[in-house]
Amino acid sequence: MAEDGSDVNEKKFTKELKQTFLICCVCSEVFDDESRHPRLLPCLHSICFTCLHNVVKDETVQCPICNDITSVPGGDLSKIRKDNTRRDLLDFVNVRTMSSEIKCSQCETDVAVSRCAECKDFLCKQCAHAHNVTKVTKSHPVSTIEELKSTSLTNFCGKSKCQKSGHDQYTVDLYCYKEGCRRPICTLCALTEHKEADGHIIKDGTSTYEQEKRETDTFLAQMKEREKEVDKITNWVKYEILKVHERSMQLEENIKTAFSNCRELLDKRENELILQIKQHCEDKAKVLNQQKARLEEFKMEIKDSISFTDGVLTGYSKAGFLQVHGQINKRHENLYARRFDQCPHRTANMTFNAVNMGTDFQKHVLTLGIVDSVDIDPEHSKIETFTGQVCQPSKVIRVSLFDRERRPFLEEKADVQVRILDTSNHPLTPFYNAVHSDSDNCFFHELTRDEPGVLVADVYVCGLEIRKKIKFAIKDSKLPPVGVKKGARAKDTGRSKTIKPQNTSPASKMNEKVVTGNQPRGSMDVRIEKHLSLPGNEGCGTIVITYTFQSGIQTENHPNPKKPYTGTTRIAYLPDNDKGQKVLKLLKVAFERGLLFAVGVSQTTGVDNCIVWNGVQHKTSRHGGHLSFGYPDPDYLDTVLDQLAAKGVTEVDL
């Protein structure tokens, strides 16, 4: 006969109860009242006393389930609480499962037919009769095994007896609140060892249970909510793990496609060069063949003249020779006087010059492609708001990015988006890309409004929300925005814009203090490739800049003094025109002032203590456009001039 749903659920409950509370997590043996009695660790996992001796080491016990460490001063395992609550649970499970006959706890030979709720003993028929007539135990509640099979766990357990020697006839129905005690006690305990005159605070056990249970229920509800939060984050992490593998495969395909395209370009260039060779060869061969034909024709005329003359000299009579010798000599004179090129019109002198295919090509190959791996931590990043300097009413929202170790994120390639909400979380603007500030290594968004009010900024970094939304009010404020420079006002509400520094005169420039950075010692080498143009800058050559830094030790001006940093080589490209030369000169000034590089976390590798860009864009690729840090990019040189000016490097310095 099939089991109904209640029987299935009952068996499942009993099995889970046994697995969770009645089995040692080390040896997997069922707890008993002897050597394998349970000891409860602070992490709420239980180990039998036998196994506890095996896992104690250096006065500590490490939980085999959660690895939590419990200190055991002097190695005294008796200080780890004995769990006396498992006896009733064990009997409850044994009755429910009845995998074998339960022996009488008194005579230990006959099969038990009942159980005393106070003594916690199973009784055979004879021992049960004696139990019911004995003066001390005849008032104890005794239930048959069949009755117990349908009894709830609460009723099965009944009232607990005091475990203290000599108090076994008293139930634990009081609770001592004194600091250092805080445990259930019996009436005899209250009269002997827990006297109120000695400072003990005795409360009714039932009311204490209700009070403590309410507090525990509150904590339990909080823990269940925390479990949901952890489960949510766990699922998020699992999702990211899957996405990491998916993204890895996708990027691998992208890289293969990109390099396949590069190989196609190389193959195309190879075929073009081979075609050029063939064309040159065909042109040379055509000219040479024409020259050869003319020479052979001339040679044939000479040969025919020589042959005729030889024939006349050997076969003609003297009179016959004299008749034609004038014509022969005239022919010879004409042929001998005829001019002809005495060198080939073309030669086989052709060469292949592997321009940009040696060391230059090696360096260029090392700059092909960029893998970005952004590990910004939204929890540790900051949002601040300041009153704008340009106009009123306005507000500047500053986003400072940090990684998991709270290290500042120094590079500018991060997707930071800001939108503005009202206090009911209704969007007032779409998402705008925040603008990177080179001087502060922060991202800014300036909001302008026609009227003051309380608004909410919602900030996302790489698709992840930074903490909670931040509320702010647009009103007059004397607190200046840190690191924000003056710039033109944006016309549209909530529009992002680059904040540019004010123009300065040469006189004021001379009076200003020169800004210097903590760029490590390195070299800046420049060469010109006149034969090679950059896309969008045809008609001029290419300026190739090579920055070289050796590995070294950070100074007091760096993020981690006395720690080593990793050296690097960076190659950048500029068009060799008037504006490109101007930018080159300003870059040299900035390099000398230590402003182009810094020591920090590499965005591409996530490794700390590396030399990284410091807020001045460089084109590290010849091709690919703006998104690939290459050309064409019509606004690039103007952008670099603005970024250098923000660092105090202008034409006045030239």
TrEMBL record:
Domain RING-type: 24-67
Start and end residues of each B box-type domain: 99-145
Biological process (GO), any one: protein ubiquitination
Residue ranges with Polar residues bias: 499-508
EC number: 2.3.2.27
Catalytic activity: S-ubiquitinyl-[E2 ubiquitin-conjugating enzyme]-L-cysteine + [acceptor protein]-L-lysine = [E2 ubiquitin-conjugating enzyme]-L-cysteine + N(6)-ubiquitinyl-[acceptor protein]-L-lysine
A Pfam entry, by short name: zf-C3HC4
Chief subcellular location: cytoplasm
One function term, GO molecular function aspect: ubiquitin protein ligase activity
One annotated Gene Ontology cellular component of this protein: cytoplasm
Chain positions covered by the region annotation Disordered: 484-520
SMART domains in the record: RING (SM00184)
Listed pathway(s): Protein modification; protein ubiquitination
Family matches, as Gene3D superfamilies: 3.30.390.130, Classic Zinc Finger, Zinc/RING finger domain, C3HC4 (zinc finger)
Keyword flag DNA damage: no
InterPro entries associated with the record: Deltex_C, Deltex_C_sf, Deltex_fam, Znf_B-box, Znf_C3HC4_RING-type, Znf_RING, Znf_RING/FYVE/PHD, Znf_RING_CS
Keywords: Cytoplasm, Metal-binding, Transferase, Zinc, Zinc-finger
Subcellular localization(s) per the UniProt record: Cytoplasm
SUPFAM superfamilies named among the record's database cross-references: RING/U-box
Similarity-based family: Belongs to the Deltex family.
Descriptive protein name: E3 ubiquitin-protein ligase
Organism: Sinanodonta woodiana (Chinese pond mussel)
